[in-house]
Amino acid sequence: MRILGIDPGSEVTGYGIIETDGATHRAVLFGAIRTVARHPLHKRLLRIHEELCAVLGREPVDAVAVEGMFHAVNVQSALRLGHARGVALLAGAQFDVPLFEYSPMEIKNAIVGYGRAEKGQVQAMVRFLLGLADVPSPADAADALAVAICHSHCSATRNLIAKAAQR
After folding, report:
1. Closest residue by Cα to residue 47 from 87, 76, 86
2. Are 135 and 127 in contact (CB under 8 A)?
3. b/e string for 44-80 if b means 16 or more Cβ within 10 A?
4. What is the structure's pLDDT at 100?
5. Is residue 61 within 8 Å of 147, Cβ to Cβ?
6. Start-to-end CA span in the chain (Å)
7. Which of 11, 110, 113, 150 has CA atoms 20 to 30 A from the CA of 124?
8. pLDDT tens for residues 78-102?
C-alpha cells in the first residue's frame, strides 16, 4: 500500500509518500511546498494545490492522510490552516483517492505511543521506522511521513477488527 501523508500549512505544507505492507515501511518521496508569506492567501493556496496535484499525478497512492485541526490560540492562523487543509483534501478528492484525517494527538500516539510527545521524539521515530540515516528534512516533511505511518497503523488495526467481527 502506498500512502501520501500531508502536514498542511499556509506557508509550508509537508508531504511524504510511504510504501508499506502494514509492518514495514519505506519512504518513497518526501518534501515540502513553500509559499511566500507576503503573497495573498489565494495565491499560496493555489501553489499548494498545484504542487500536491503534481505529486499525485506522478506517484500513484492508495490513500491520502491529512493532519487534522488542533486548538489554536490565534484565530487567523487557525483559519489559514483550515484553508490549507481544504486544499489538501480537494487535491486528494480530485484524484479520487480515499481520504483520512488524524489529529496531532492520534499521530503522536501512533508513532511514539504517547499523544503528547515532543516534535523531536516524533521525528526520531519516523527516522527509525523508515530506516533512514537522518531525520527527514524539513520538519514538515517528517511530520507528513508521520501522518502516513499513522494511517498505516490505524488501517491495519481497522482491518484486524473487521476480520475479527466477521468470525
Report:
1. 87
2. yes
3. bbebbbebbbebbeeeebebbbbbbeeeeeeeeeeeb
4. 97
5. no
6. 25
7. 11
8. 888 899 999 999 999 999 999 999 9
What H or E segment, with its residue span, contains residue 26? strand 25-34
Give the number of domains in the chain. 1
The answer to whether the pTM exceeds 0.70 is: yes
* C-alpha cell of residue 110: 501512533
How far apart are alpha carbons 96 and 100 in whole angstroms?
Answer: 13
Give the burial class of 132: count Cβ atoms within 10 A of its Cβ; 0-12 exposed, 13-18 middle, 19 or more buried: middle
- CATH number, domain containing residue 128: 3.30.420.10
Residue indicated by cell numbers 502506498: 2
Tens digits of residue pLDDT in 18-42 = 999 988 999 999 999 999 999 999 9
From CA 151, how far away is CA 16, in angstroms rounded?
Answer: 12
Q: Which residues are catalytic?
A: 7, 67, 140
* Beta-ladder partners of 16: 5, 30
Query: Measuring CA to CA, how many Å separate 42 from each of 9, 72, 119, 133, 136?
Result: 13, 21, 29, 37, 29
Range of the structural domain that residue 81 is part of: 2-166
